[in-house]
User: Fold 3-ketoacyl-[acyl-carrier-protein] reductase beta subunit from Myripristis murdjan.
Amino acid sequence: MSRLAVVCGGSRGIGQAVCRLLAQRGCRLAVVSRNKDAARATAASLSGAEHVAFSCDVSKETDVQRTFETIQKTCGNISYLVNAAGTNRDGLLLRTKPEDMVDLLHTNLLGTMFTCKAALRSMLQTQGAAIVNIGSVVGLKGNAGQCVYSASKAGLEGFTRSLAKEVASRNVRVNLLAPGFIRTDMTAGLRENEAARSIPLGRFGEPDEVAQAVLFLLESPYITGQVLVVDGGLQLAM
Ligand code: NDP
Assistant:
Protein backbone atom coordinates (compact mmCIF):
# COMPACT_ATOMS: atom_id res chain seq x y z
CA MET A 1 0.00 0.00 0.00
CA SER A 2 1.16 3.56 -0.68
CA ARG A 3 2.63 5.69 2.10
CA LEU A 4 0.26 7.74 4.26
CA ALA A 5 1.29 11.36 4.74
CA VAL A 6 -0.46 13.63 7.25
CA VAL A 7 -0.10 17.33 6.43
CA CYS A 8 -1.30 19.69 9.15
CA GLY A 9 -2.14 23.04 7.62
CA GLY A 10 -2.61 21.26 4.29
CA SER A 11 -5.60 23.27 3.12
CA ARG A 12 -3.68 26.36 1.97
CA GLY A 13 -0.25 27.81 1.24
CA ILE A 14 2.88 25.80 1.91
CA GLY A 15 1.00 22.79 3.33
CA GLN A 16 -1.23 22.58 0.27
CA ALA A 17 1.81 22.64 -2.03
CA VAL A 18 3.32 19.81 0.04
CA CYS A 19 0.08 17.82 -0.38
CA ARG A 20 0.21 18.29 -4.17
CA LEU A 21 3.81 17.12 -4.43
CA LEU A 22 3.37 14.12 -2.12
CA ALA A 23 0.25 13.06 -4.03
CA GLN A 24 2.29 13.20 -7.25
CA ARG A 25 4.85 10.94 -5.53
CA GLY A 26 2.11 8.38 -4.92
CA CYS A 27 1.37 9.09 -1.25
CA ARG A 28 -2.11 8.96 0.25
CA LEU A 29 -2.81 12.27 1.98
CA ALA A 30 -4.62 13.12 5.19
CA VAL A 31 -5.19 16.86 4.82
CA VAL A 32 -5.69 18.55 8.20
CA SER A 33 -6.89 22.07 8.98
CA ARG A 34 -9.55 23.76 11.10
CA ASN A 35 -11.74 24.52 8.09
CA LYS A 36 -13.01 21.11 6.94
CA ASP A 37 -14.45 22.41 3.66
CA ALA A 38 -11.07 23.87 2.66
CA ALA A 39 -9.27 20.64 3.63
CA ARG A 40 -11.86 18.65 1.68
CA ALA A 41 -11.44 20.85 -1.38
CA THR A 42 -7.67 20.34 -1.27
CA ALA A 43 -8.02 16.56 -0.81
CA ALA A 44 -10.44 16.41 -3.75
CA SER A 45 -8.06 18.38 -5.98
CA LEU A 46 -5.10 16.01 -5.49
CA SER A 47 -3.99 13.47 -8.08
CA GLY A 48 -3.53 9.74 -7.51
CA ALA A 49 -4.92 7.71 -4.64
CA GLU A 50 -7.95 8.49 -2.50
CA HIS A 51 -7.17 11.32 -0.10
CA VAL A 52 -9.04 12.31 3.05
CA ALA A 53 -9.67 15.53 4.94
CA PHE A 54 -9.89 16.13 8.67
CA SER A 55 -10.96 19.14 10.67
CA CYS A 56 -8.67 19.67 13.65
CA ASP A 57 -7.38 22.59 15.68
CA VAL A 58 -3.75 21.64 16.39
CA SER A 59 -3.62 24.01 19.34
CA LYS A 60 -6.06 21.75 21.24
CA GLU A 61 -4.49 18.55 22.51
CA THR A 62 -7.75 16.60 22.82
CA ASP A 63 -8.76 17.54 19.27
CA VAL A 64 -5.34 16.40 17.97
CA GLN A 65 -5.53 13.12 19.90
CA ARG A 66 -9.02 12.37 18.59
CA THR A 67 -8.10 13.28 15.00
CA PHE A 68 -4.96 11.15 14.89
CA GLU A 69 -6.80 8.16 16.38
CA THR A 70 -9.36 8.49 13.59
CA ILE A 71 -6.64 8.87 10.94
CA GLN A 72 -4.95 5.67 12.12
CA LYS A 73 -8.22 3.75 12.33
CA THR A 74 -9.44 4.80 8.90
CA CYS A 75 -6.18 5.18 6.93
CA GLY A 76 -3.56 3.00 8.69
CA ASN A 77 -0.06 3.78 9.95
CA ILE A 78 1.55 7.13 9.24
CA SER A 79 4.77 7.32 7.20
CA TYR A 80 5.17 11.08 6.93
CA LEU A 81 4.04 13.97 9.13
CA VAL A 82 4.43 17.56 7.93
CA ASN A 83 3.60 20.30 10.43
CA ALA A 84 2.71 23.34 8.34
CA ALA A 85 -0.19 24.63 10.45
CA GLY A 86 0.78 28.03 11.73
CA THR A 87 -0.35 31.53 12.44
CA ASN A 88 1.20 34.96 12.90
CA ARG A 89 0.19 38.11 14.72
CA ASP A 90 2.91 40.69 14.15
CA GLY A 91 3.44 43.69 16.41
CA LEU A 92 5.82 45.16 18.95
CA LEU A 93 6.02 43.22 22.20
CA LEU A 94 4.74 46.21 24.21
CA ARG A 95 1.52 46.12 22.18
CA THR A 96 1.03 42.35 22.10
CA LYS A 97 -1.94 41.06 24.07
CA PRO A 98 -1.35 38.08 26.37
CA GLU A 99 -4.13 36.13 24.65
CA ASP A 100 -2.37 36.58 21.29
CA MET A 101 0.90 35.34 22.82
CA VAL A 102 -0.87 32.26 24.14
CA ASP A 103 -2.60 31.58 20.81
CA LEU A 104 0.67 31.88 18.86
CA LEU A 105 2.55 29.56 21.17
CA HIS A 106 -0.34 27.09 21.32
CA THR A 107 -0.68 26.88 17.55
CA ASN A 108 2.91 27.14 16.34
CA LEU A 109 4.84 25.41 19.11
CA LEU A 110 2.52 23.27 21.24
CA GLY A 111 0.47 22.34 18.16
CA THR A 112 3.52 20.70 16.59
CA MET A 113 4.38 18.95 19.85
CA PHE A 114 0.82 17.62 20.11
CA THR A 115 0.75 16.28 16.54
CA CYS A 116 4.21 14.69 16.79
CA LYS A 117 3.22 12.99 20.05
CA ALA A 118 -0.07 11.80 18.59
CA ALA A 119 1.57 10.42 15.42
CA LEU A 120 4.68 8.83 16.90
CA ARG A 121 3.39 5.42 18.02
CA SER A 122 2.00 4.87 14.55
CA MET A 123 5.20 6.11 12.89
CA LEU A 124 7.31 3.70 14.96
CA GLN A 125 5.50 0.87 13.14
CA THR A 126 6.47 2.25 9.71
CA GLN A 127 9.72 1.77 7.79
CA GLY A 128 11.38 5.04 6.81
CA ALA A 129 9.02 7.29 8.78
CA ALA A 130 9.89 11.01 8.82
CA ILE A 131 8.63 14.28 10.25
CA VAL A 132 9.21 17.77 8.85
CA ASN A 133 8.30 20.71 11.06
CA ILE A 134 7.99 24.14 9.50
CA GLY A 135 9.86 26.81 11.44
CA SER A 136 10.96 30.16 10.08
CA VAL A 137 14.13 32.05 9.32
CA VAL A 138 13.04 34.59 11.99
CA GLY A 139 13.18 31.77 14.55
CA LEU A 140 16.89 31.50 13.78
CA LYS A 141 17.72 35.21 13.43
CA GLY A 142 14.99 37.13 15.28
CA ASN A 143 12.96 40.01 13.88
CA ALA A 144 11.63 43.23 15.40
CA GLY A 145 7.83 43.08 15.54
CA GLN A 146 7.81 39.30 15.67
CA CYS A 147 9.08 38.49 19.18
CA VAL A 148 6.44 35.92 20.04
CA TYR A 149 6.21 34.40 16.55
CA SER A 150 10.04 34.12 16.47
CA ALA A 151 10.04 32.51 19.91
CA SER A 152 7.46 29.95 18.80
CA LYS A 153 9.59 29.08 15.76
CA ALA A 154 12.88 29.07 17.71
CA GLY A 155 11.24 26.65 20.13
CA LEU A 156 10.62 24.30 17.23
CA GLU A 157 14.36 24.09 16.58
CA GLY A 158 15.11 22.72 20.06
CA PHE A 159 12.06 20.50 19.91
CA THR A 160 13.02 19.08 16.50
CA ARG A 161 16.65 18.37 17.42
CA SER A 162 15.63 16.74 20.73
CA LEU A 163 12.90 14.58 19.20
CA ALA A 164 15.33 13.56 16.43
CA LYS A 165 17.67 12.24 19.15
CA GLU A 166 14.82 10.47 20.98
CA VAL A 167 13.58 8.51 17.98
CA ALA A 168 16.71 8.01 15.84
CA SER A 169 17.29 4.52 17.23
CA ARG A 170 13.78 3.62 16.01
CA ASN A 171 14.66 4.94 12.54
CA VAL A 172 12.23 7.84 12.61
CA ARG A 173 13.80 11.07 11.30
CA VAL A 174 12.80 14.59 12.36
CA ASN A 175 13.91 17.78 10.61
CA LEU A 176 13.02 21.46 10.59
CA LEU A 177 12.54 23.54 7.47
CA ALA A 178 12.91 27.29 7.94
CA PRO A 179 11.36 29.36 5.12
CA GLY A 180 11.90 33.05 4.46
CA PHE A 181 9.20 35.13 2.74
CA ILE A 182 6.88 32.79 0.81
CA ARG A 183 3.92 33.98 -1.25
CA THR A 184 0.87 32.73 0.70
CA ASP A 185 -2.11 34.16 2.59
CA MET A 186 0.26 34.75 5.52
CA THR A 187 2.34 37.28 3.58
CA ALA A 188 -0.51 38.72 1.49
CA GLY A 189 -0.59 41.91 3.57
CA LEU A 190 3.10 42.72 3.05
CA ARG A 191 4.46 45.16 0.50
CA GLU A 192 6.22 42.56 -1.59
CA ASN A 193 8.41 44.86 -3.70
CA GLU A 194 9.75 46.57 -0.60
CA ALA A 195 10.31 43.38 1.39
CA ALA A 196 11.95 41.64 -1.58
CA ARG A 197 14.76 44.21 -1.58
CA SER A 198 16.23 42.49 1.48
CA ILE A 199 16.27 39.09 -0.25
CA PRO A 200 19.46 38.28 -2.22
CA LEU A 201 17.45 36.38 -4.86
CA GLY A 202 15.22 39.47 -5.09
CA ARG A 203 11.79 37.85 -4.78
CA PHE A 204 9.45 35.97 -2.46
CA GLY A 205 9.52 32.18 -2.70
CA GLU A 206 6.64 30.10 -4.01
CA PRO A 207 4.94 27.41 -1.89
CA ASP A 208 5.98 24.79 -4.47
CA GLU A 209 9.64 25.74 -3.92
CA VAL A 210 9.28 25.03 -0.20
CA ALA A 211 7.43 21.79 -0.94
CA GLN A 212 10.41 20.55 -2.99
CA ALA A 213 12.65 21.00 0.04
CA VAL A 214 10.13 19.29 2.34
CA LEU A 215 10.09 16.31 -0.03
CA PHE A 216 13.90 16.24 -0.02
CA LEU A 217 13.94 16.03 3.79
CA LEU A 218 11.20 13.39 3.89
CA GLU A 219 12.99 11.19 1.36
CA SER A 220 16.62 11.60 2.53
CA PRO A 221 17.29 8.51 4.65
CA TYR A 222 20.49 9.81 6.32
CA ILE A 223 19.38 13.31 7.39
CA THR A 224 17.94 13.91 10.84
CA GLY A 225 17.95 16.70 13.44
CA GLN A 226 18.79 19.32 10.82
CA VAL A 227 17.51 22.78 9.95
CA LEU A 228 17.15 23.49 6.23
CA VAL A 229 16.75 27.18 5.37
CA VAL A 230 14.71 27.95 2.22
CA ASP A 231 14.77 31.73 1.98
CA GLY A 232 16.34 32.96 -1.27
CA GLY A 233 19.40 33.94 0.78
CA LEU A 234 17.47 36.22 3.20
CA GLN A 235 19.36 34.86 6.21
CA LEU A 236 22.64 36.07 4.70
CA ALA A 237 21.31 39.62 4.83
CA MET A 238 19.73 39.53 8.33
P1 NDP B 1 -1.23 30.01 5.39
O1 NDP B 1 -1.86 31.04 6.26
O2 NDP B 1 -1.30 30.12 3.93
O3 NDP B 1 -1.81 28.57 5.79
C1 NDP B 1 -1.85 28.16 7.13
C2 NDP B 1 -2.43 26.78 7.20
O4 NDP B 1 -2.44 26.37 8.58
C3 NDP B 1 -3.86 26.70 6.71
O5 NDP B 1 -4.09 25.43 6.12
C4 NDP B 1 -4.67 26.83 7.99
O6 NDP B 1 -5.96 26.28 7.82
C5 NDP B 1 -3.78 26.02 8.96
N1 NDP B 1 -3.94 26.35 10.36
C6 NDP B 1 -3.77 27.57 10.97
N2 NDP B 1 -4.02 27.47 12.28
C7 NDP B 1 -4.38 26.18 12.51
C8 NDP B 1 -4.77 25.46 13.66
N3 NDP B 1 -4.85 26.04 14.86
N4 NDP B 1 -5.06 24.16 13.55
C9 NDP B 1 -4.99 23.54 12.33
N5 NDP B 1 -4.62 24.16 11.21
C10 NDP B 1 -4.32 25.47 11.30
O7 NDP B 1 0.28 29.93 5.91
P2 NDP B 1 1.63 29.47 5.18
O8 NDP B 1 1.35 28.36 4.26
O9 NDP B 1 2.31 30.68 4.71
O10 NDP B 1 2.45 28.95 6.44
C11 NDP B 1 2.68 27.58 6.70
C12 NDP B 1 3.74 27.49 7.79
O11 NDP B 1 4.95 28.08 7.31
C13 NDP B 1 3.37 28.25 9.06
O12 NDP B 1 3.85 27.52 10.17
C14 NDP B 1 4.14 29.54 8.94
O13 NDP B 1 4.43 30.09 10.20
C15 NDP B 1 5.39 29.06 8.23
N6 NDP B 1 6.11 30.11 7.53
C16 NDP B 1 5.51 30.81 6.52
C17 NDP B 1 6.22 31.80 5.88
C18 NDP B 1 5.64 32.62 4.76
O14 NDP B 1 6.32 33.57 4.32
N7 NDP B 1 4.48 32.30 4.25
C19 NDP B 1 7.60 32.14 6.28
C20 NDP B 1 8.12 31.32 7.32
C21 NDP B 1 7.40 30.34 7.93
P3 NDP B 1 -7.22 26.75 8.74
O15 NDP B 1 -7.16 28.23 8.85
O16 NDP B 1 -8.43 26.21 8.05
O17 NDP B 1 -7.02 26.07 10.05
